[in-house]
Write a sequence for this structure.
């Protein structure tokens, strides 16, 4: 059989290569021993466990993974990547899925986590350094809800842990160029 | 005293919610003859948000700071485990000439440990502690270059040098979930409370950390009677008998003063 561009196997292959292409993540080396999921601190809260996310990515069936909340719950603690007997960079695969989910515009499985990351980068771009109180405000605007644990925030403020005055802007012109350079990749 | 000159990358947290870590790091280093020179114009390392959303941007944000350090011509030291991790990845990926270190790398050299032993004014022998390294200081070993990533020793060595009563526990490198703190406190509470419970079970008076995100996360989410969470540099300042520690304690959510006073550390 001739394999044309519309051939599903070829199309899947291209998706697999995209996952493989991100810095030697080795997703295809997974033999589902589940060691990554066994050591994952947040696996109980994921509807797809790390070994399942890797399996989907390696099979080129990443659609379900992109929509899952599990990718956004990953704390990047690196336990999975460190312990994988086959050298799969599990946390790297999950990062690649997060990046693709954010760029593709699918409805994120956990919109609050995506809002945190976006608010954080907004703050870096605007100021060069992160001011915690402004970050919380940016998160609220992005997530369209009050920051979680607002009472804790007030307690931290009263302890003098959260400076009211933001740090002065640092190298923002240079950073704007770094942010623009990445666009459209 | 030999003076070692290092470029210093405090990171955003040490200029914000974790100023006591910045102040204690500077104070202890000065006392030990380490000259920390803060990089002018440093910017955020990119943190989790960077590598979660844009790999190229994450690398660019880290390497920008390495270029500043290269121009300064010294090794670069970061007290925040998360910054350290991102900068270390930058060092590796960009083949930078700059060596990125964590403060623990600097203080756990044989010479520094000997100097710490010689400089102790108030031994911490009355203080029972567990050492919490967290994730990014040690993992993955391909980035951190550490062979003891499942049972790290550098903070143990440093705190043993000032004679602290170190309690063994199995949770040195378990994740506290700090990265989820803003959006998913439900998940974080479970992870951090477990660590606090296990520290208590190990018989500790307090938890000792080397990361502003770990410290804040563990210190701010305790529900029952609290277990203080301290930076290792705060305790080193006490052990070395340094002046200027008072303002740190009131910035902790769980007041460490009773525990420190009882142990004769203050």
């Amino acid at each position: 059989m001739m394999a044309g561009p519309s051939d599903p196997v070829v199309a899947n292959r291209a998706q697999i290569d995209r996952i493989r292409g991100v810095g030697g993540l080795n997703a295809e080396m997974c033999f589902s021993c589940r060691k990554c999921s066994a050591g994952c601190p947040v696996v109980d809260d994921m509807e797809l466990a790390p070994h399942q996310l890797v399996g989907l990515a390696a099979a080129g069936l990443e659609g379900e993974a992109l929509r899952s909340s599990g990718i956004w719950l990953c704390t990047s603690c690196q336990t999975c990547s460190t312990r994988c007997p086959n050298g799969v960079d599990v946390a790297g695969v999950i990062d690649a899925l997060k990046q693709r989910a954010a760029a593709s515009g699918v409805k994120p499985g956990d919109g609050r986590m995506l809002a945190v990351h976006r608010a954080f980068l907004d703050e870096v771009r605007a100021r060069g350094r992160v001011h915690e109180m402004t970050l919380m405000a940016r998160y609220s605007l992005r997530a369209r809800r009050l920051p979680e644990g607002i009472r804790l925030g007030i307690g931290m403020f009263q302890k003098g842990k959260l400076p009211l005055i933001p740090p002065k802007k640092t190298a923002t012109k240079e950073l704007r160029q770094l942010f623009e350079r990445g666009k459209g990749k | 005293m030999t003076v070692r000159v290092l470029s210093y990358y405090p990171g955003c947290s040490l200029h914000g919610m974790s100023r006591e870590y910045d102040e204690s790091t500077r104070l202890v280093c000065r006392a030990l003859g380490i000259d920390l020179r803060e990089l002018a114009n440093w910017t955020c390392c990119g943190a989790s948000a960077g590598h979660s959303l844009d790999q190229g941007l994450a690398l660019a944000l880290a390497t920008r700071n390495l270029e500043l350090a290269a121009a300064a011509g010294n090794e670069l030291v970061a007290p925040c485990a998360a910054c350290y991790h991102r900068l270390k990845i930058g060092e590796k990926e960009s083949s930078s000439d700059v060596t990125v270190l964590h403060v623990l790398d600097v203080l756990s050299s044989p010479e520094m440990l000997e100097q710490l032993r010689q400089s102790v004014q108030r031994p911490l022998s009355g203080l029972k502690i567990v050492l919490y390294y967290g994730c990014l200081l040690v993992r993955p070993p391909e980035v951190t270059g550490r062979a003891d990533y499942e049972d790290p020793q550098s903070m143990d060595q440093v705190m043993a040098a000032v004679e602290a009563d170190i309690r063994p526990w199995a949770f040195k490198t378990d994740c506290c979930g700090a990265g989820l703190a803003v959006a998913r406190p439900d998940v974080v509470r479970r992870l951090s409370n477990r660590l606090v419970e296990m520290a208590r079970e190990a018989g500790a008076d307090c938890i000792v950390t080397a990361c502003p995100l770990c410290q804040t996360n563990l210190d701010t989410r305790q529900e029952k009677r609290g277990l203080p969470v301290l930076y290792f540099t705060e305790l080193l300042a006490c052990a070395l008998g340094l002046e200027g520690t008072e303002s740190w304690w009131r910035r902790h959510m769980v007041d460490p003063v009773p525990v420190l006073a009882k142990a004769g550390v203050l």
Observations:
- DSSP finds eleven helices and no strands in chain A.
- The first helix of chain A runs from residue 8 to 21.
- Chain A has a mean pLDDT of 88.
